[in-house]
């Protein structure tokens, strides 16, 4: 009976670590960077995109009082280690997909890595993907310059 309890405990701990590993959160400068590179491609209103661009560009004193929530169904980025000029990301918002290439894709790819999204490789390509991205930016808190006001959560993988 004792062996059974230890087995159940080990299985429970194993399952707990799997579910904990499936969700990730980032905050502060990394969350602002992630929102900053995704927002230009999102369906957010132009005013909110402009606020995020200013915050990400280094202007913390923006006259915007509401919290901004940015969401994405999934983001899949690919870079080739054979054709070193090839890099792209597919960003999906509410079922609609937008593809970006080149410098913009590289910025998203690098920021995903900074946020801890694991990479995976296959046949000359390196992939990074996440799903269920949700970022909340609070310009009033960011304005305080105390490191808060930006939080993102996501699940690695597609």
Secondary-structure blueprint of this entry?
Layout: H1 2-22, E1 24-27, H2 29-38, H3 46-56, E2 68-80, E3 87-93, E4 96-101, H4 102-114, E5 119-122, E6 125-137, H5 139-143, E7 150-156
Strand/helix succession? HEHHEEEHEEHE
Low-pLDDT regions: 1-20
- Structural class by secondary-structure content: alpha+beta
Number of helices: 5
Distance between the termini: 41 Å
| Share of residues in helices | 25-40%
3D shape: elongated
Strand content: 25-35%
Describe what you observe in this structure:
By secondary structure, this protein is an alpha+beta fold. The chain is built from 5 helices and 7 strands, in the order αβααβββαββαβ. It has helices at 2-22, 29-38, 46-56, 102-114, 139-143; strands at residues 24-27, 68-80, 87-93, 96-101, 119-122, 125-137, 150-156. Strands 1, 2, 3, 4, 5, 6 and 7 form a 7-stranded antiparallel beta sheet that branches. It is elongated, with a radius of gyration of 18 Å.
């Amino acid at each position: 009976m004792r062996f059974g309890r230890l087995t159940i405990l080990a299985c429970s701990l194993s399952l707990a670590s799997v579910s904990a590993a499936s969700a990730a959160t980032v905050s502060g400068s990394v969350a602002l960077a992630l929102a900053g590179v995704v927002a230009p491609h999102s369906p957010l209103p132009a005013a909110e995109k402009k606020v995020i661009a200013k915050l990400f560009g280094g202007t913390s004193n923006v006259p915007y009082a509401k919290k901004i929530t940015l969401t994405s169904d999934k983001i899949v980025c690919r870079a080739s280690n054979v054709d070193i000029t090839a890099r792209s990301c597919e960003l999906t918002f509410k079922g609609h997909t937008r593809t970006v290439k080149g410098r913009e894709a590289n910025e998203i790819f690098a920021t995903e890595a900074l946020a801890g999204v694991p990479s995976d490789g296959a046949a000359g390509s390196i992939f990074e993907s996440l799903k269920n991205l949700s970022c909340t930016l609070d310009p009033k808190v960011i304005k305080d310059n105390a490191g808060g006001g930006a939080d993102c959560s996501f699940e690695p993988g597609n």
